[in-house]
Amino acid sequence: MRKASLAAALLVLPTLVSAAPPMAAAQSAGLEQACISVAKNFLLAPTLKTGVVQSFPELDPPGARLTYSIRQNPEPTDFNDEIECEFDRAQAPYGLKRFCISNTCYSAGEKEEENRRRYQEVKALMDRQKP
């Protein structure tokens, strides 16, 4: 009887594995790359290693967020920094609307003059890039 139960379990196992929900796939590689560009421009970093990257083209406003490290050879525990980006559109040209790094946000409507200036600088750099 034990052999029969084991055989039945082995037959059902592939069905259970394939019924498991898939890992979230990238929703918009373009939005994700645009957010990576925002991070590189803001941090003045020619290279940026990314950890978890998520995008949300279906939201209003569309956006992306990711963890990153500017270390040369980062360990998995080095991806502690996070950036969130919001855009005007889900397709190129995206139009940078707002971005937040750590607990500080940057947009055209920011009250802090320096934060508004940093947003304008990054937006100008993003607008110069071809989609």
UniProtKB/TrEMBL annotation:
Signal peptide: 1-19
Name of the protein this chain belongs to: Uncharacterized protein
Keywords, alphabetical: Signal
Organism (species): Rhizobium helianthi
